[in-house]
Automatic annotation (TrEMBL):
Cofactor field: Mg(2+)
Highest taxon, organism lineage: Bacteria
Catalytic EC class: hydrolase
Keywords of this entry: Amino-acid biosynthesis, Hydrolase, Magnesium, Metal-binding, Serine biosynthesis
Catalytic activities: O-phospho-D-serine + H2O = D-serine + phosphate; O-phospho-L-serine + H2O = L-serine + phosphate
Enzyme Commission (EC) number: 3.1.3.3
Keyword Metal-binding: yes
Domain DUF4072: 5-44
One term under GO cellular component: cytoplasm
Pathway named in the protein's UniProt entry: Amino-acid biosynthesis; L-serine biosynthesis; L-serine from 3-phospho-D-glycerate: step 3/3
A family per Pfam: DUF4072
Gene for this chain: serB
Keyword Mitochondrion on entry: no
Protein name per UniProt: Phosphoserine phosphatase
């Protein structure tokens, strides 16, 4: 049997009762004011539950009854527009007055319309000559954590999970977030710098969709975990292979293509909604 985790900023009691009827759940339990679990749900009724939740603007997830937070051994996250609210490269571009041009390429890549490696190469090339100090300004003035990010991380970390931040963005930011958030591992692209300025190139291989998937699998196997012990979160098309490789791949406030193809979705609550799946 499964439980259904229902989440939203506001949840009407009559909606919970209707979902219990639709799913055959025998009991409704509060996780907190914005999250409830329906115990004993029949997963064969998933389509009806999904349709109702979409119309009522509720996040939902079927989770095996016997799975708890201490069963999760690895949590893998994208950075830009997932763990944090911004796309760092767009904000860096704003420092040289070319945010609209770069943001347009970023959005197309995240929708899956452009090859990620080629699009990143194009965008980074436009930053050539920018003083590296501009990156610190982006971090200090614009980078904010996604709502619920710290609560989500603390919950999984307290239960013993390792964490991997893997980004098609840049080590300048992941290297700062790793100690700040107590992350176990962080992988991203290295911006080449010469004489205190960006050269417009990336050092080494670009972290793309396949690299994200491969690093998740490598670390999962190194830790001796089963797929159902791995959670992954992302928002762009380049996150999809990683989301499918995890037992629980969650599209977080994601692009339509990602929402359509990811196993799980969070649209109305913060990242702590992913932790609530397992409480």
């Amino acid at each position: 049997m499964h439980r259904i985790v229902i989440q939203a900023p506001e949840i009407a009691t009559q909606n919970l009762k209707q979902l219990a009827r639709l799913s055959g759940a025998g009991e409704i339990q509060a996780i907190h004011q914005q999250a409830f679990r329906l115990i004993g749900a029949d997963i064969s009724n998933q389509e009806a539950v999904a349709d109702f939740c979409e119309s009522a603007q509720l996040d939902w997830a079927f989770i095996p009854e016997d799975l708890g937070v201490r069963d999760i051994g690895l949590v893998v996250m994208d950075m830009d527009s997932t763990l944090i609210t911004i796309e760092c490269i767009d904000e860096i571009a704003d420092m040289v007055g070319i945010k609209p041009q770069v943001a347009e390429i970023t959005a197309a890549a995240m929708r899956g319309e452009l090859d990620f490696k080629a699009s990143l190469t194009r965008r980074v090339a436009l930053l050539a000559g920018l003083e590296v100090g501009a990156l610190q300004r982006v971090y200090d003035e614009r980078l904010k954590l996604m709502p619920g990010a710290e609560k989500m991380l603390k919950g999984f970390q307290a239960a013993g999970a390792q964490t991997l931040l893997i980004s098609g963005g840049f080590t300048y930011f992941t290297d700062k977030l790793q100690p700040r958030l107590g992350l176990t591992h962080a992988i991203a692209n290295v911006l080449e710098v010469a004489d205190g300025k960006l050269t417009g190139r990336v050092e080494g291989d670009i972290v793309d969709a396949e690299r994200k998937r491969a690093e998740l699998i490598r670390l999962r196997d190194e830790l001796g975990l089963e797929p159902h012990q791995v959670v992954a979160m992302g928002d762009g098309a380049n996150d999809l292979p990683m989301l499918h490789a995890a037992g629980f791949g969650v599209a977080c406030h994601a692009k339509p293509k990602v929402q359509a193809e990811a196993p799980y979705c969070i649209n109305y609550v913060g990242l702590d909604g992913v932790l609530n799946y397992f409480l």
